[in-house]
Amino acid sequence: MNKATRSPWSWIPTLYFAEGLPYVAVMTISVILYKRFGLSNTDIALYTSWLYLPWVIKPFWSPFVDILKTKRWWIVSMQLLIGAGLAGIAFTLPTPFYLQASLAFFWLMAFSSATHDIAADGFYMLALDDSQQSFFVGIRSTFYRLAMITGQGLLIILAGFFEKSTGRIPFAWSITFFILAGLFIAFAVYHRIILPRPSSDTGKAARTPKEVAAEFGRTFASFFTKKGIVLAIAFMLLFRLAEAMLVKLASPFLLDARDIGGLGLSTQQVGLVYGTIGVIALTIGGILGGIVASRHGLKHWLWPMALAITLPNVAYVFLSIYQPDNFFWVNLAVAVEQLGYGFGFTAYMLYMIYFSQGEHKTAHYSICTGFMALGMMLPGMAAGWIQEHLGYEHFFILIMILTIPTLILIPFIKVDKEFGKSKKAIQPAGEVTTEQ
Fold first, then answer.
1. Of 143, 163, 326, 413, which alpha carbon lies 20 to 30 A from 371's?
2. At 129, is the secondary structure helix, strand, or coil?
3. Higher pLDDT, 390 or 217
4. Chain-wide mean pLDDT for the chain?
């Protein structure tokens, strides 16, 4: 088959699976890893929240990915860098300086992963025509979700198995990261061979980097002069305030011993409940959210979705108070919270698309995703310190109190009554497919 016209089935599933795994490794696996190594919740939340930074600042360098080299080159190169970062983590975990070294490699992975997102989404549009893009949008989302299940579920279960079989936690996690590193080297080799070579993916532009920077400056400035910008930024930063803090402590809570307020689950059990059952519920919630929003529009569903992303957090209050022995109740509580999160997050994504409408919508949407990441990064940094001072029960009660700012904002949000119905909510280029 001609290299410029390879079947999308040969590369879209693997490309978006490869896009999802490093994000999960940086944001979720790192938390469980450091918890198993005995770090305090304060340190875990602070250090791993800093790893959001590449996604916060991604809009600033995304224009240059468009003009420096081809998207294809960026994809393969970033996959090699991600593989190198994973191998670096695997090598350093058994050492006395594992924390500083592994964090450095995690940051390399985060930067490479954010750049890979830019290149992969850009390549998707260059390599496919409009009808193919529409057809495969569900396929790419499905394989991204499969990457989440693999990372948060199967890999955690695998690490737990190695913990039990070897009795050596650093060695067990080192093996797990070596496996991931090998997988990404294989991805880079495979995509180096299989990715098509669309003629439009030249890596050349009529404008110089200086001209691009000047244009981006004007676009960036125009974003902050949009009508309702203050309220929009408040929405992007506060809509997930409670969830941003909860997500950093969910896995540590499940792992911590019962005598200090946790549930005392094993690594394998956490992989099953949070990384498998939880992700499946999250995905179902997202699908349902998309279906109902397409029928009645964002304005109609804004309140129900805001309630869905906030009220189910009470499941963790229940778990922290009763500390159930029955694994069924743990699975049910996590599934309810993640189902509500997936359903409610639809409103967040649609609002960012809505606010980005007009001239420069792609660049403005990219800036919105930066605020989205910032909204997770800042609250997450303080979550561990707050929890260690309050204890899990009172921390999760505080989480419920922190849902109030989200609900206070909703009456002030102005949305076109028809937006979101049918094809009104067209996703702009560079859409973030993850639930960051």
1. 143
2. coil
3. 390
4. 89
Can you tell me the distance from the alpha carbon of 16 to that of 195, in angstroms, rounded to the nearest whole number? 13
Contact 290, 137 (CB under 8 A): no
Q: Rounded CA gap, 264 and 253, in Å?
A: 8
Q: What are phi and psi of 427, to 5 degrees?
A: -75, 130
Domain covering 7-196, topology: Growth Hormone; Chain: A; (1.20.1250)
Question: Residue 83 corresponds to which tokens in the numbers above?
Answer: 């593989």
Q: Quote the CA–CA distance of 121 and 429 in Å, as a whole number.
A: 7
CA neighbours within 13 Å on the CB side: how many for 388?
15
CATH topology of domain 219-420: Growth Hormone; Chain: A; (1.20.1250)
Cα 165–Cα 95–Cα 29 angle in degrees, nearest 5: 60
The answer to whether 55 touches 366, Cβ cutoff 8 Å, is: no
Q: Rounded to whole angstroms, how far apart are CA atoms 41 and 34?
A: 9
Fold match between domain 7-196 and domain 219-420: yes
Sketch the domain layout of the chain as residue ranges: 7-196, 219-420
Comparing CA positions, the residue from 400, 406, 240, 376 lying closest to residue 320 is 400
Query: Quick one: 334 exposed, middle or buried, by C-beta within 10 A (0-12, 13-18, 19+)?
Result: buried
Closest CA to 102 of 174, 53, 160: 174
Alpha-carbon Rg for the chain in angstroms = 21
The whole-angstrom separation of Cα 242 and Cα 55 is 20
Amino acid (one-letter) located at 264: G
pLDDT, position 65? 81
Question: Could you give the CA distance from residue 219 to residue 221 in angstroms, rounded to a whole number?
Answer: 5
Element (H, E) at 231: helix 229-238
Q: What is the pLDDT of residue 134?
A: 73
Q: Residue 82: which H helix or E strand, with range?
A: helix 71-92
The pTM score is: 0.90
Cα separation, 339 vs 280, in Å, equals: 8
- What stretches of 274-391 show up as alpha helix (H) in DSSP? 278-296, 298-310, 314-322, 327-355, 361-390
Structure tokens at 179: 């496996």
CB 366 within 8 A of CB 42: no
DSSP state at residue 273: I
State how far the Cα of 344 lies from the Cα of 306, in Å rounded to an integer.
Answer: 6
